[in-house]
Specification:
Largest sheet: 6 strands, mixed
Shape: elongated
Radius of gyration: 23 Å
Length: 445
């Protein structure tokens, strides 16, 4: 793929690489005109009928950050903005860059009660496309136009994948607690020693049954606080849980609320998880999904994190960046692509329950709708659940059943012989993963 532009910028180069696996950008008209291959003219002037013409809005040629004049219309049933006359009725490169870079989060805005960018301030929420991976849908339509223009064009390969993830904010209700707390909880729950939050064996069975490779994020706050309520990282119960799960699955750090403004504390937590698990910890997800651009992501990079799973909202479900595939973070203030790979999630059960006040039955429909739309674009479907939401308590049992039924409905069940094969495959995958690969997904064909 050859793209012509009068000016080559880091923004244009970045978005071109999001769209195409093998792409080159040139500012030479002679080179572009002489090319007989698949080519896109990204300029105001059309040269010939042997090109695909996209008229730029100017965003990718700008420096700095300023309020953009955005007006949404529709094309093929999808919202679009940065309208222009060309072979496609809008500047798809600039519009995609605006959403993926989270440009609007750099602009002045009022934060929510947790100090986060409020989803109500987002273009996706205001224009009612937060529930869609809009950039993926644009790309799908765009590829169709390119195929019509250039029959030899081959779409970049992608396949649907599902990654179930779990935030372990409160590992146990009883285990690892002080004596008074333990006695109080035992009396309250009348559990006769059974820990209501200990659902890890049940999850293991689900993962094995449906051939899933989950990921766990651990909160390891040194001190308890209003928002950090997990066991002490020195607790033998928590250490044993980390060792057990990290021996089978990929684990990441869930930075404490207290570490949000303390880079050293965050790094201490990461190194502690690394020591307990015996694994190199390079993945992270922000507690309460609290992050501020660009500072939080820069801190992650500085600490050795190269995969982040925070790109979503902690206040509503949907696609924060309007994208459902991994993509590298672009630092707008430094105008450069970074090596931090972002893995967007679109569903968290806590959003359904606390923020959207859905019943388990309503949440099941919401979860299923996200599954279908991600599968439609061959995206990566990432969900977040918490162990204390999946207990057998009366309040949470409907949610436990909802999750179990969702997996049963959408993912194949292994036979006994299939489980044996799966176990060997899991061993191989984990060996490869911890030998250097950051993560893996189970591909559903």
């Amino acid at each position: 793929m050859l793209i012509y532009s009068e000016k080559i910028t880091a923004r244009l180069q970045y978005i071109a690489e999001v769209f195409f696996e093998d792409v080159r950008v040139t500012s030479s008209i002679a080179e572009f005109s002489a090319s007989g291959g698949i080519k896109i003219n990204y300029s105001n002037k059309k040269f010939s009928e042997e090109e695909f013409h996209i008229v730029p809005s100017g965003l990718l040629f700008e420096g700095g950050i300023k309020k953009q004049n955005i007006h949404c219309t529709e094309w093929n049933g999808l919202k679009i903005f940065f309208q222009a006359n060309g072979d496609i009725p809008f500047d798809i490169f600039s519009a995609s860059f605006y959403l993926l870079s989270r440009y609007e989060e750099y602009l002045p805005h009022k934060k929510d009660s947790y100090g986060r960018f409020s989803h109500e301030k987002s273009l996706a929420f205001r224009e009612n496309f937060l529930h869609l991976p809009l950039v993926n849908l644009w790309i799908r339509e765009f590829y169709g136009l390119l195929i019509k223009k250039f029959p030899a064009f081959v779409k970049p390969h992608s396949s649907f994948s599902f990654l179930p993830t779990y935030d372990i904010d409160i590992a146990y209700s009883v285990k690892g607690r002080g004596l008074l707390k333990k006695v109080y909880n035992l009396f309250k729950e009348k559990s006769r020693g059974k820990d209501r939050f200990d659902i890890y064996g049940w999850l293991d069975e689900l993962h094995l049954k449906h051939q899933l490779s989950p990921m766990y994020f651990f909160l390891l706050a040194k001190r308890r606080s209003k928002y950090d309520k997990n066991l002490s990282p020195k607790s033998s119960a928590l250490k044993n849980l980390v060792r057990n799960l990290s021996s089978k699955y990929v684990v990441g750090i869930h930075p404490s609320w207290q570490s949000y403004h303390d880079e050293q504390l965050f790094n201490d937590e990461r190194l502690h998880l690394q020591k307990i698990s015996g694994r190199n910890i390079t993945s992270s997800r922000q507690h309460y999904i609290k992050f501020t651009l660009p500072y939080t992501f820069r801190s992650l990079i500085e600490a050795g994190i190269n995969n982040d799973y925070s790109m979503g909202y902690g206040s509503i479900n949907g696609f924060r960046a309007s994208f459902t595939s991994p993509f590298y973070w672009y630092d707008l203030m430094q105008e450069k692509k970074t090596e931090l790979l972002l893995h967007p999630f679109c569903y968290m059960e806590a959003n359904s329950y606390f923020e959207q006040t859905l019943t388990a039955e309503e949440a099941a429909k919401e979860l299923q709708s996200y599954y279908h739309v991600v599968k439609k674009v061959n995206g990566h479907f990432i969900t977040i659940f918490h162990n204390h939401f999946l207990t057998e308590e009366r309040q949470w049992l409907p949610w436990r059943k909802m999750y179990e039924e969702f997996l049963q409905k959408n993912f194949q069940t292994t036979s006994p012989s299939g489980r044996i094969v799966y176990c060997f495959r899991m061993f191989y995958l984990f060996h490869e993963t911890f030998a250097g690969s950051y993560c893996f997904f189970v591909c559903i064909h």
